Give the backbone structure.
Amino acid sequence: MASIIAESTTQTPRAPRPQRPNYAKLHAKPLPLETYPLPAFLPQNPLSILRIAYALISSYISNSSSHPAPHTHRAYYSAATRSVHVTDDISVRALWESGFFGKGSLSRSEPEWLEREKKRLGLVRDKAGETSAEITRKRREERREGKRERARLEREELEAQLRKEGKLTATESPLVTEQEHQIAASAGDAASDATFDGRSATIIDPLAAKEAEYAILQNQEHLQLIPYEAFFLSYALGILDVYDPASGQRLGSRDLLKLFRHTSVFPPLPANRAPPVDDPFILNYVVYHHFRSLGWVVRPGVKFSVDLLLYNRGPVFSHAEFAVLVVPDYSSGLWRSDERLQKIATTKKKEEWWWLHAANRVQGQVKKTLVLAYVEVPPPEEAHAASEDIGALLKRYRVKEVIIRRWTANRNR
Amino acid sequence: MADATEDLIRAPLNSTSASPSPLHATQNSTNNASDSDSEAGDSDTAPDYVNFLSTLNLETSTNLQHTSSALPKRGNKDFEPHPTNLQTSSLQRSRDAMTQALSHTRTHAPKVHVRGIYDDKSGLTRVGKVKGQMFRSLGRDISGGGADLYAEEALWGLERGALDVFWPKDAPKAQALDGADATDSDAYEECTGLPMSLQAAYAAYVGGPGGLTSEKYVVYAGLKRAGFVVLRAQGFHGIQRRRLLQSAEDQRFPSPGLWAWLRELIFEENQHQKTKRLAIGPLVKPGLYRNYNSIYDMLRIIPAYTPPSSTSTSHASPAPSSTRPTSTAQKQKLNNEEVPKDYETYHTSYTTTYNIYRASPTFRKSAPGAPDFRVCVISARDTSVPTLAELDSLLDEQPQDPPPPQLQPQTPSASRPDNSARGGGRGGRGAGRGRGNGIGGVYNRLKHGQRNVLLAVVDEGVVSYMRVCEAGFTEERLNERVGPPPARGGKGGGQRGGRGGRGRGRGGRGS
């Protein structure tokens, strides 16, 4: 995919893109936590020790913390969407910019609806920095144009051949109607795309309504966090407080884990039932946490038919290199210790080969590498014993990564 | 993917029709270069018989030995039928070519006519006298110039028309000759009975006493046709394995090590505090942190498998002088396997079926050396995606195959200190600009993995090969890579460097 686009950029001259924001500066922090590095000690400059001392003392006096001050980010759990919503603008920016958590509810990934809307209404003059949605729309438009052109060339070639064989007179051109039909259809597509992206077809005269619009234009967008992202921010980093919208109470880590595990299956489990050892939430969270703790930026990978995508530094810098499928595994020695457990293990669904082939084929097309993240699931009793201690529970699950790539004999001779 | 359609503007469309497209004949030469999908081999498309026929004619007109080295090229495809005479005629030409190719009479050249006798007890085929190049990599020599062929080897020879197999006419006599010193190969050949038809050969060999299954034969024939030397491996018939009833697998997950313990003792919180921190979170307790690495260290709680080469992280065995142990160490480990009492045995097909060697003029079947690839043949209908235990046992059979030195990060000083605890994790120190530095080096090391094996998944005759390797993700800690990598050119991503991208990802340090 990427190389094809690159090909088109090199072949068709295009106006230079407006300068983009400085992503390296914008996304300098890998996690939404502040760090206070000490100045380096320079042996040739003994006075530099004073700078270190100053940094130490000032951080002690000012009582600065790596965690967001004065309070942590707030979010609430939405049962309808089974996601966690962050509405505060500062929190949204902080969570997106440092670590790429969540997704704008009205955007493809980065929450940029407001910016897009302002541009659409002509409220901002400068054209600098297109949003990713705009880039995508343009690219799709170009691609559609290319397809149209290809179809036209093919038809012309065919007509020329038919004329040569005397099956068509020099003037008639029966295939053009089809072409026109196609253009009309794709134009319709483009129009529907535009309204979808614009999201407010009701405004009839934007010029007249501009002033009023400016006053009432509010950010309609919030940041959606997948449960495992929210749990990571809350339990692991301790920078997100998730509230229950019904009671208005803050959910502690244990409550949150219970809520997420119970609602990760459909229909949601009743509150008095213990969740299964291998519910989707805990499996995904274990793998998510594992790769996050190794420094990867982990994003959901549903559009590439996988569970997670691994980015180096983040999606604005480069494409994801690895696509992760989470595979629960019940083959460890623990599941063989008695017959009852063995019986349970045999009832677990085993994935078929074509499922793996299908996922792997997609990765080949999008130039990613498939990683199978096996999660060794502990037996139920063991997991249940540790249900109150989240750390102990997570430590019962073990991860092993295996990379799968297609191999062709012809290319390895 | 819909995104891939753009280069189709220049390239012709794919279709299932095997007839070459007359309309796109002129574009044929240009589109091969723009075939960007490196994953999809050209093995998926149907053969073009017109081109095939031309090579066949060449073959029959000259000597059989001098087959043309160039493979037949495939033509372009027409996407849909249209009422041109050109298409009709080319389609007809292609059909004629196919009929002609299939009706071609295959004969044995007298000089290389090899006869073998099928043994219905062992499933082997005994060849009295070997002739021709084929036997350089086929069969096991017996004294007197003969050879024994395994079922798949005999079937392959038969399919190629290089071997004539006979039913045993006088089995006792043949066996008597078998038991005696079978130097008299002519007498041996007198014991032969009726020639075996191809149908009979398939019936006798596949599922016969030789242990050949259709899956294994399909893989064997496919690899042979691709030019590899394929030899049976130890686990051709599947394998009896032992496994522990109770889990003693904790040793695979290294414990933190002495240094970590000391550090915890002196600098960090006590055990009680730590347990409490883990129990309800947050793992990163509120406070002041000087760098992100210390934060990531606190986050690292999920036990993860480390590939066996990285013994340096385990405190049980002291780190060797080189962080990557040699393959002999691994062999020793396999040989010194001890069998405690609480083991059970089970049969599995997850074991190496064939050893594969690239064709080489110096290959000797008596001393094949280390194989280039090892393949495990799996039936897609009988098995599902392997469990970790199955995969582990398969990988345990494989030798160590760490990433080559040029993929390792180049440290400024040539010798790495012994106590650098994390093997190859410190790419991109900014000093060297080797292939291993930078994120491309990390990707390539991960993709190469440690131990690896090929899985040939056969679904009713259709083979999908997959390379499975253990990825050392725990070895490559991205947060420890110092500073942002160079925005351009730093990808160095070997096989697919310069992946273009949509532009957004590039030049992140523009302003």
About this structure: Residues 85-102 of chain B form the longest helix (18 residues). The two ends of chain B are 34 Å apart (CA to CA). Residues 59 and 66 of chain B are 7 Å apart (CA to CA). Chain B has 14 helices and 13 strands.
